[in-house]
Amino acid sequence: MQKLAVLTSGGDASGMNAAIRAVVRSAIYQEMQVYGIYQGFEGLIAGNLSEMTLGSVADIIHRGGTILQTSRSNLFMQEKGMEQARENLNQLGIKNLVIIGGNGSLKGGYEISRLGINVIGIPATIDNDVVYTRSIGYDTAVNTVLMAINHIRDTASSHGRVFIIEVMGRHCGEIALAAGVAGGAESILVPEIETDFEQMIEKIQAGIGRGKLHSIIIVAEGVYPVMDLQDYIVEKTGQDTRITILGHIQRGGTPSAVDRILASQMGKMAVDCIASGLRNVMVAGREEKIFTIPLGEVINGTKTPELEMFELARILSI
After folding, report:
1. C-alpha distances out from residue 182 to 88, 257, 316, Å
2. What is the rounded CA–CA span in Å between residue 279 and residue 287?
3. Residue 83 and residue 157 in one domain
4. Under a CB-based contact definition with an 8 Å cutoff, are residues 43 and 37 in contact?
5. Are 109 and 194 part of one and the same domain?
6. Which candidate, 274, 251, 257, places its Cα nearest to that of 24?
7. Are residue 56 and residue 155 in the same domain, yes or no?
């Protein structure tokens, strides 16, 4: 009987539970023995594993977060920690490891794969910054931001204010760009594209000139200090300007149908890869197709922004 283990790592993303459920149930369907690793790579190093059954993943497809919990592990990236992780898997006769997480998690998976463990990666990060694929959790996060934009627009219109909304994304502006376009934002600031501050001010002033009651500015975290941006807008326009930082509200919540389906497809594909002997790949999903990419290619890839989407935002926000 083949054995596999599954863990979630890095930042949580809605849809991780759906992926866990798909991995466990697909593995049992194919008569494999499956173990859950609790608290990510830290749990793997500590030997925090237990066998999972069909009942282990009952009633979780709709839940945000991850029942296996997660962590970020510096120890795993050290030789001592990685050797201990491999030893814990070897002691249980586990040769296959499914890792659900973002770039850092996939990089960790690639490193342990070099020690002989077969690693199948499933991309799950709200940032959507893993190359060649849509990531689990991204759609839910965008919809959460969109809901916030809709709510904020009501009060912005009532008071005639400019609102700066900071969203997550670190070095990737995917959430800001998608939510900004869907939410009709006047300006979107992302790390991949240099900000034209003069154009941003012109749009606000043009809106004021034609009687518009509010402006929405979406900022990906880390692009520009939002307090400084607030001061700049007030100085240039004289408009009452407020800041909303959405923070970790973007991570949690019930996963969207898109994320549940994607996670289910990817989880099953991960088990199919193990059953067919495919080694050290990431399951990817794009344009309704599920396929695989070698892990080495994934961790060395660079995600590029969709400039067409930014151009669309620029034109429609005139």
Report:
1. 46, 18, 11
2. 24
3. no
4. yes
5. no
6. 274
7. no
C-alpha distances out from residue 105 to 123, 236, 277, Å: 9, 43, 22
pLDDT at 2 over 80: yes
Residue 102 structural domain: 3-137+255-299
Per residue in 164-179, pLDDT tens? 999 998 789 999 999 9
Q: Which of 12, 59, 127, 129 is catalytic?
A: 127
- Between CA 268 and CA 20 the distance in angstroms is 10
In the chain, the amino acid numbered 299 is I
Residue 108 and residue 42 share a domain: yes
Looking at residue 39, the DSSP 8-state letter turns out to be T
- Residues 77 and 223 grouped into a single domain: no
Query: End-to-end distance of the chain based on CA atoms, in angstroms?
Result: 61
Distance CA 121, CA 282 (A): 4
Provide the CATH number for the domain around residue 285.
3.40.50.450
Report the run of H or E that residue 52 belongs to, with start and end. none
Q: Check whether residue 95 and residue 186 sit in a common domain.
A: no
List all residues 6 or more positions away from 287 whose beta carbon is below 8 Å from its beta carbon.
Answer: none
- CATH number of residue 241's parent domain: 3.40.50.460
Element (H, E) at 167: strand 162-167
- As for how many domains the chain has, the answer is 2
Residue 270 lies in a domain: yes
For residue 90 the two structure tokens come to 């070897």
- Considering the domain boundaries, does residue 206 fall inside one? yes
pTM over 0.85: yes
Would you call 127 a catalytic residue per the annotation?
Answer: yes
Whose structure tokens read 């054995």? 3
Give pLDDT tens digits for 227-241: 999 999 999 999 999
pLDDT value of residue 308: 85
Are 127 and 260 within one domain?
yes
Smallest Cα–Cα separation from 37: which of 26, 28, 46? Answer: 46
Q: CA 107 to CA 305: how far, in whole Å?
A: 21
- Token pair of 238 as six digits: 């004289």
**Same structural domain for residues 72 and 119?**
yes
Q: Which residues partner with 285 through β-bridges?
A: 290
